[in-house]
Amino acid sequence: MPGIIAGALVAHPPILLPEVGHDASTQVAATVVAIRRLDAALAAHPADLVILCSPHSPAGSVAIPVRAGKAATGDLSRFRAPQVRVGVELDEAITHRLFEAAIEAGFPMAWAEDEPLDHGVVVPLHFLERTRANKPFVLLGLAGWGLDDFVRFGRWLHRHLEDRSAIFIASGDLSHRLIPGAPAGYRPDGQVFDRAVIDALRSNHWDQIERLDPVFIDEAGECGLRPLAMLLGAARAAGIPSTVLHYEGPFGVGYPVVQFGPPAPGQSAAALAREAIRHYLTTGQFLEPPEPIAPDLAGMSGVFVTLQRQGDLRGCVGTIRPTQPTAAHELVQSAIGAATRDPRFDPVSIAELPDLEVHVQLLETPERVESPDDLDPLRYGLIVRSGERQGLLLPGLDGLSTPDEQIAAACQKAGISPYAALELFRFRTRDVA
């Protein structure tokens, strides 16, 4: 199958590496796990070329810079980790062919200066070892185009690669302005921007990204939107969906890990949840997860399944701690519960199933905290407990931006008086594709 057959939006903060971040790297360990999962998924595709666009590579005002030569190398010396080094072979033939054809098609290009690879290339490729193994590269920078132009270029790129099968990697972070003290300063629009992009990628409503207001984008202080726009154009032309593997922003910068392409057999948690619901609605029986169970679902874990229809919540049920032998079995139970036992909604009908958006999250073990200062509604879910009553909220819910708001909402959900003595527990979740 020629053209772009798979792709990814990958965060590139050097702090992911212990050689750079030291103890702070543990706070973004979930992002590293997600990139490793992404690596396994991308490596399973029969591609013979990787195209990578980094926003930190040489840029042009009018023309997209393209790396020439036979090979390129770079390291993280700038971040005091020269031992972290990556080298790639460049596909000279396809690079020259794309260069000439793009100019002829109305997409200006220029040859990039021969300088070390930037961290927007080095960091993702450090982790995507299997994806890059034995594959030549085409390396792109950015130009001062509008988003529509990058989308059109991505669409053209897919169609022009008629005799090659390629993986497109869009290197980039989202807003750099998520919290006070963030690298680019705090802006309230930063969190709104990241939620808009992640929600659009999760639902595959990419037009919501392409229609974002340029002033709003500028306020967000992002660096990954233009490489992503290229990928969106290619993915739409190729007919491949997006799956958000993970997102977090503990240091004030949004770190996305998003897979583009069909999931490998047995790996789609959303597909298992959907099939469990369909099976239950048609037979009244609980589905037995098919073998082999994907590695992410083979262990024991609490699982929450959230259902949405046309952007509105349609059901959300889960378990705080595991009750089943595997997370896959837990997922089946939670999916059916979200569809049929959420007391806020009527049961889902079989006719609604094609329109449902399914989001699966694995829960880490909750930890008790002593103060609201230890909470963060964007990073942590919350459990409040008072006597026999208990309320739970997942992280990242709209309208909850402070610990006090999160506590109040959890108490209201559980019917707990706001003046009651509370036990507080926080937990992380991990999105599962």
Give a summary of the structure in a few sentences:
The chain has 433 residues and is of the alpha+beta class.
Radius of gyration: 22 Å
Strand element count: 18
Helix content: 25-40%
For this structure, the quaternary state is: single chain
Structural class: alpha+beta
CATH homology-level superfamily of the largest domain: LigB-like
Task: For the record, give the distance between the C-alpha atoms at the N and C termini, rounded to a whole number.
Answer: 23 Å
Sheet with most strands: 6 strands, mixed
How do the strands of the widest beta sheet line up side by side?
7-2-8-1-10-9
Using the 3D structure, state the CATH architecture of the largest domain: 3-Layer(aba) Sandwich
Overall geometry: globular
Q: Helix tally? A: 14
- How large a portion of the residues is in β-strands, by DSSP E? 15-25%
Strand and helix map with partners:
Elements: E1 3-10, H1 18-21, H2 29-43, E2 49-53, E3 64-66, E4 71-76, E5 81-89, H3 92-104, E6 109-111, H4 119-127, H5 129-132, E7 137-140, H6 147-160, E8 165-171, H7 188-203, H8 207-210, H9 214-220, H10 225-238, E9 242-248, E10 255-260, H11 269-283, H12 295-298, E11 302-309, E12 312-318, H13 327-340, E13 356-363, E14 367-369, E15 381-386, E16 389-393, H14 403-414, E17 423-427, E18 429-432
Parallel strand pairs: 1-8, 2-7, 2-8, 3-6
Antiparallel strand pairs: 1-10, 4-5, 9-10, 11-12, 11-13, 13-18, 14-17, 15-16, 15-17
